[in-house]
Amino acid sequence: MYTIVRREVFSENSFLWEVRAPDIAAAAQPGHFVMLRLHENGERIPLTVADFDRDRGTVTVVVQALGKTTREMRDQYQQGGSFEDFVGPLGLPQHIGQVGHVVLVGGGLGVAPIFPQLRAFKQAGNRTTCIVGFRSQELIFWADKLAEFADELIVCTDDGSAGRPGFVTAALKDLLDAQKPDLVIAIGPMPMMHACADTTLPYGVKTMVSLNTIMVDGTGMCGSCRVTVAGEVKFACVDGPDFDAHQVDFKELNARQKRFKKQETLANEDAAHICNLEEKLFVQGKRTYKKYSAVEREQVKMPQRDPQERSHSFAEVNLGYNYAAALRESERCIQCIVPTCIAGCPVSIDIPRFIRQLMVRDLDGAVDTIHESSIFPSVCGRVCPQESQCEAQCVLIKAKKEPVAIGRLERFVGDNARGTKAKIPQLGKSLGRIAVVGSGPGGLAAAADLVKFGAEVTVYEALHVVGGVLRYGIPSFRLPRDIIEREVQGLRDSGVKFETNKVIGKTFTVAQLTGSMGFDAVFVAAGAGAPSFLGIPGEYAGQVLSANEFLTRVNLMGGDQFPYIDTPTGMGDKVVVIGAGNTAMDCLRVAKRLGASSVRCVYRRSEAQAPARIEELRHAKEEGIEFSFLHGPSEILLNDEGDVRAIRVERMSLGEPDERGRSAPVPQGEFVEWDCDTVIYALGTKANPIVAKATPGLGLNKWGYIIADDDTQATNLPGVFAGGDIVTGGATVILAMSAGRRAAKAIAVYLQQGKQTWPIRAADLETFVPLVAAAPVSLN
Question: Distances from the Cα of 144 to the Cαs of 31, 115, 127, 156, 171, in angstroms?
């Protein structure tokens, strides 16, 4: 990254950057140029070196905000900021010698690049005349700086508001009539340089022009900067950028410069649209800024991998929006006055704010907004059931339109934004030492907030990798592993410590954590554990697996690559999965990818009652999964060797609603058998008993889950908090994260009150006072 050590504004659209680039400064010469790129998605633009300071190690460029990139430089980059790439010095330097009388003509962008050549020619003992042109008086800059090295300085303004009225070519002609100089150098817009060449031609005065503005790559590889000089093709980046103006084919050059006119028009239209949105949504603060009738009825479709291809691959199925699709979908959000979608988000992301930041292309601002509430935009954007949470609250539904695709936009922002790099907070003093049990979404969310609050956080994970259910429970075709690692790395960069292969309740107890190990509080987010079975005959067979075992063998241990990796799956050729939740869909689709010829879902209720996301059901069907709804397993049939040979099921119909409002399945007394050699149970989990058994006195409910306060996650044991599946039973990633965030705030209050109040209640949370941050220190 390159730092802007000085920024000076000359006018509304003209400004200076002095950039720290010691290597470039050491090699720079008058006439050189540099290539600049602001960020990963930015274009490379050529800028002539306006000045250089070898002692300071800086290079100065002067910029006029004419296009998208230069406007971005003007509006979004300040002194002290940094940008991605700065390459140079490039091109050939101007030959500086004792010429005699040198006239340097600069117009528009060319005024600043004139300076190093003017200085060099003067220092070489030449007589110098400098002619510079501006549209009006308020745009004039560097007049004093130029005058220091010019024997004569002629300032022209188009409107006559200062200096000599008219164009620089008129002043140049008058000078040529009065005295014949030995050399003219013209730098500026293409029409101005062409005009200067035409002006000097009748006088026979050698004239040089700088063609750095036609550069694209700048390193001699692309050929975009080709120009015909004296009938021979030259390349401005390596043969120039300065050429004999009287030998340049300006007609050809001007024709080639028009090739991007259509794209420039589109870019300018887009820029105008962004400005309009910024004015309405940010300056005026307007909400409900467009009518329902102006909103597309349907969401922008999510591109996905071909079903036939993906059913044999663990590559990600949903490919994600590209930039155009994300922007189009973002503008379906009307930015309503009362944004009900926020209430539908378990962690209360400011959804309208991140979407309007996306609308105006501020991806970094958008991801920073999400990070205020959620550390995992790329994860949650993929796996959260937005259709039953935030999207279900979208006001577009009332207008009989599909809701804004909030999850897809969240994923796009998480995947593509850079955001603020995670750093260790410097808060002056420590809040305390906190142990987090489990590195699933609940534990990670708590750790993220606690470290922001100034705590020293250590996360203990029973497995050999960090991520909990994100790692072992969700296949890579839904959640790529590099996405998990990237999000977790952000926590490491923030100062969170991770200890893997540590089973709390076995390796250490909760009492040890709060006792001899010196932790001030503990948050238990161990997740749910033991799988549920039906208790039907044949369940004891070796080919009957739980979803936890099956998915762990594949997702965590690489069973899909057996025998090249040591862990087998034990799966046969014909697979039946019992259940119809998201975990069941994962099992079905993994089995298909492992090569099973037949994969069947058995569920005792109807498809409409299936807990799985609609998208997951659709994907499974597209991949060739068979579904048998309204069938309840009654027996797993075995062969003489005790291996699974079939499953016996009973037909069901829907009866009266049960205690949760779902129509209860009613047996019909009709049975059917399906051949299979593997049965996978995906019926949910029971409470993991390891922590509870090792923690005497910890309050549990009748199902063995830890009892915790709904608002603060406080248990009955002082200093011990709990949340996520170990409290609620199996739930979603985002609900576990919500519990982790509640616990983090409650823990902070507990420690700020000197551990004197227990249990922490909702009213106590109002006393929380965040520590004041000092300047952060980067780990790098």
Answer: 21, 11, 18, 15, 19
pTM of this structure: 0.79
User: For residue range 613-627, what is the model confidence (pLDDT) as tens digits?
Assistant: 999 999 999 999 999
Type of residue numbered 487: E
Residue 741 CB contacts under 8 Å (≥ 6 apart), including other chains: 347, 373, 445, 446, 449
pLDDT of 216 reads 61
For the chain, give the number of residues: 780
Check: CB of residue 213 under 8 Å from CB of residue 46. Answer: yes
Of 712, 716, 722, 724, nearest to 697 by C-alpha is 716
Contacts of 682 (CB under 8 A, 6+ apart): 546, 547, 577, 578, 579, 581, 583, 584, 586, 587
Q: Is 697 helix (H, G, I), strand (E, B) or coil?
A: coil
pLDDT value at residue 130: 95
Angstrom CA distances, 416 to 352, 361, 409, 410, stand at 18, 11, 11, 10
Q: What percent of the chain has pLDDT over 70?
A: 98
d(CA 114, CA 209): 11
Amino acid at 376: F
pLDDT, tens digit, for every residue of 650-708? 999 999 887 777 888 999 999 999 999 999 999 988 888 999 999 999 999 999 999 99
State how far the Cα of 149 lies from the Cα of 121, in Å rounded to an integer.
9
Token look-up 């990600």 returns 316
Nearby residues of 285 by Cβ (< 8 Å), 6 or more positions away: none
Question: Which tokens in the block code for residue 311?
Answer: 């059913």
Q: End-to-end distance of the chain based on CA atoms, in angstroms?
A: 13
Beta bridge partners of 504: 508
Segment 546-563 mean pLDDT? 91
Between strands 33-37 and 45-48, the pairing is: antiparallel
Query: Over the stretch 481-538, which tens digit does the pLDDT of each residue have?
Result: 999 999 999 999 999 999 999 999 999 999 999 999 999 999 999 987 788 999 999 9
Q: How many CB atoms lie under 10 A from the CB of residue 655?
A: 11
φ, ψ of residue 118 in degrees (nearest 5) = -55, -50
Buried b (16+ CB within 10 A) or exposed e, 734-761: bbbbbbbbbbbbbbbbbbbeeeeebbbe
47 vs 759: CA distance, rounded Å: 63
- DSSP-derived pairing of the beta strands 242-244 and 663-675: unpaired
Residue 187 near residue 212, CB atoms below 8 Å: no
Average pLDDT taken over every residue of the chain: 91
Helix (H, G, I), strand (E, B) or coil at 62: strand
Contacts by 151-156, CB closer than 8 A, 24 or more apart = 151/122, 151/127, 152/128, 153/129, 154/129, 154/130, 156/131, 156/132
Asked if residues 744 and 453 have their Cβ atoms less than 8 Å apart, the reply is yes
Distance CA 212, CA 36 (A): 13
Q: Sign of the CA dihedral 90, 96, 99, 102?
A: positive
In DSSP terms, 459 is beta-bridged to 436, 498
The region, left, alpha or beta by phi > 0 then psi within -120 to 50, assigned to residue 724 is left
Establish whether the linkage from the previous residue to 718 is cis, with ω within 30° of 0. no
Q: Give me 280's structure tokens.
A: 């309405």
Among candidate residues 554, 523, 552, 588, the one with its CA nearest the CA of residue 721: 523
DSSP-derived 3-state class of residue 12: coil
Whole-angstrom distance, CA of residue 142 vs CA of residue 342: 52
Q: 33, 176, 16, 18: which is closest to 94 by C-alpha?
A: 33
Residue whose tokens read 């140049």 = 172
Amino acid at 731: A
